[in-house]
Amino acid sequence: MCGRINLKLAPHELRDLFDVIRGFDEIDWTPRYNVAPTTQMICVRESSDGREVFPARWGLIPSWVKDKPPALTFNARSDTVATKPMFRSAFKSRRCLVMASGFYEWRKLDAKNKQPYYISLTNGAPMPMAGLWEVWKLPEGETVESCTIITHTANDMMEPLHDRMPVILTHALVDPWLDPAINDPAAIQPMLEHFPADEMQAWPVSKDVGNVRNQG
């Protein structure tokens, strides 16, 4: 799973690396070091006016939900994302990048203790995670944009820490992943591949990260 990230991005990184041209004024670029579900994420998608960055609540809310947001939709499993009602429509036509600088995972030491680790790319670049987005309308008429991060089994670097990890997209997969014209699940599914283990790094961090109120 992926339930906590680090987010310290600069607008120029999205312009230069992901060809984003609009939406920058809608984003709070203040660095956040302990980001949890239900808070705002920074996402990238294709639009009719070009590639844009947009804020989205972490935890997908499908448009057909009536009363309140569903629980535990901050991750979508790669093996069921194409068929599960909660995600299958977005998987076909509302894919995005959920941006991060890195993420945290807890390695189980024994029955009572876990050690948190921070995982990032070795080159220090932003980490584009495969995501989905939706628009939900509240009964009062207000709309909420939300997102989820797709996960799959761990690669060789992550396996000692946890059995699952977010799908991190290589540069070559960013364009087809964001392309709304590609809407056949059979063509989309192969994009959910393992990111090269030798391009990732991890190190232990303070257990203070376990409390979402702790930042810095």
Could you describe the 3D structure shown?
The structure is a single chain. With about 220 residues, the chain is mostly beta strands. It has one domain (about 5-210): hypothetical protein yedk fold. Helices cover about 10% and strands about 35% of the residues. It contains 4 helices and 12 strands. The protein has helices at about 10-20, 90-95, 170-180, 185-190; strands at about 5, 30-35, 40-45, 50-60, 75, 95-100, 100-110, 115-120, 125-135, 145-155, 165, 200-205. The chain has a 5-stranded antiparallel β-sheet, with no helix packed on it. Strands 3-4-10-9-6 form a 5-stranded mixed beta barrel. A hairpin with a 6-residue loop joins β3 and β4. The radius of gyration is 17 Å and the shape is globular. The model has no long low-confidence stretch (mean pLDDT about 95).
